Amino acid sequence: MKGKILLSHGAGGKETGELLNALIVSRIWENLKRVEGGYGIDVLDDGATIPLGDGRHMVLSIDSFTVNPIFFPGGDIGKLAATGSINDVAVMGAKPIALMDSIVVEEGFSMEDLEKIVKSMIAVAGEEGIAIIGGDFKVMPKGQIDKIVISTVVVGIASKPIIDKHLKPGDKIIISGTVGEHGATIMALQQGLGIEAGELRSDCQPLTKLMLPLVEKYPDDIHAAQDPTRGGVAQVLNEWAQKTGNIIVIEEEKIPIREPVRAYSEMLGVDPLSLACEGRVLLGVEREAAEKVLKYIRNLGYVDAEIIGEVHEPKKHRGLVLEKTIAGGIKVLEPPSGEIVPRIC
Amino acid sequence: MKGKILLSHGAGGKETGELLNALIVSRIWENLKRVEGGYGIDVLDDGATIPLGDGRHMVLSIDSFTVNPIFFPGGDIGKLAATGSINDVAVMGAKPIALMDSIVVEEGFSMEDLEKIVKSMIAVAGEEGIAIIGGDFKVMPKGQIDKIVISTVVVGIASKPIIDKHLKPGDKIIISGTVGEHGATIMALQQGLGIEAGELRSDCQPLTKLMLPLVEKYPDDIHAAQDPTRGGVAQVLNEWAQKTGNIIVIEEEKIPIREPVRAYSEMLGVDPLSLACEGRVLLGVEREAAEKVLKYIRNLGYVDAEIIGEVHEPKKHRGLVLEKTIAGGIKVLEPPSGEIVPRIC
User: Fold this and answer.
1) Facing residue for A131 by CB, picked from B35, B54, B130
2) What ipTM, to 2 d.p.?
3) Quick check: pTM over 0.90?
4) Of the candidates B120, B118, B152, which has an alpha carbon nearest to the alpha carbon of residue B135?
5) Among all residues of chain A, which has the CA nearest to that of B63?
């Protein structure tokens, strides 16, 4: 392979998928892409599964967090690192039980800041009752890493993992809350735009309080679930459409977007649907159950949840996402590409 | 906590242990330091365990690799990242079954180098029959990270995990091969010392071909096992002594050190016992079985393996490592402290 790594290769959009497939996934021997009986790297889901032999699955997810700035309204890199990996496991229908972290920090980094970050991470795990069972810690000389990178792994147990490729025609698409809050916050900070107090705030929060009761109550009706982080809602829906070959149609007017997020996105020239959420989940739900599920989610406290679209069988085209605009038109919602926002998570 | 992070905090020696205890371990609620019935962050072993309910344990380990240079005689950061986490699981007596990786790379990094690194990682997993089940990939803007950092997690299954605190008085200490090869190689390269062809070479290699047959053959006789990476043999033996309160006595003349490693270490002013190995294991073995175990290990092809010392009950002092020198004296082998070698692994 020739050339150089670009920011777009790490943006979580089209280029990331293409690179990782060429670089890694296609190179692993077919029988080593998963543990026998589990879901592995080839399903490109939030996490992977290892069957435990008693009907249950262990679900594992790994992520490295490079967010810049490391402190932001609504959280910090420690909270994000714990939350992000917890959510990857939760959206697979698993109960997170253990976390491991690996911190790489720059020489000269403030001990006080490190303490705040670690406290945030421990607080999230503590509130969730998740054990922190191990970790690693490295220091790189001054100037060789910008502040801090945290990698986390979360382990969970699922009796029936939610695998997104099971999304099917007829399914309704539900979003659990307003979109783009994390992405808009980080992007505004990176661009040096002042954020008025309370205007923008990351939505960074664990999804366990939503996902665990939901999969218990509706074990057969949740066909797909993913937290729309890098590349946002547009990325997840395109992945789902491509994986299943279906057409997903969403309605712009149904998508909950807070006014400041809309305003900042316009100012920054990005579609809020491409901006990362760190505390929302997209669900693909059995058609007949969708209204009940929506009501249930709202009753859990997620009052902004909405049914935003539906899955259709492919006809002429396969694997597309269409958006019915408020203006009455219809447009293709492309998978995000380009740089989007570097170091968003 | 006040002050700034120093290189010594990441060296894997005394300062690392003190910082991580104050910063992380002591802050986690007591009941969340492990999954119930497993070994967690407080045992400070190579990995952690999660009981599977059928007598078996899942063993997990996480590490971030920051080695500099990223290509070196005997390997590269990809081989090291796979090997290092595999070894952490193997020395706990577990059979590694799955690997996850997270790569953070600098914008502008050569695609060709990335390909070489990833190929090395995949090759190690492939040869070991370990599935690569998932991963993450991030890009940081030019100048915000020096080249590449890889974090890996390996999952293994053990019927009886080896937990180092079970080391007991009378046990013999065995090293599986010559020491300090990885550390001396990286240090010489960092110092800009030319390495003559073949003189120094990292010992980076998976320990599965040693550990798996060993624990099968001698399930009750291996009381402790650890790969002496950061801080080397001196670090591991001091950890063992401190964990168990015992006195460990080793004999300098028994320690296998290749001549170029000895020469470079002298030139660089370090004790080879503080230098990282990436393909060796230290074992604490039941006294009566030690000679048989040594023979068995040598027959597996580890011809430089040696019994280098013995564990004694503490008398006046507790938790010390003593070294009988070739000159006939006896000295305290201190836990390594200070910077040692930054970015050694």
Assistant:
1) B35
2) 0.96
3) yes
4) B152
5) A136
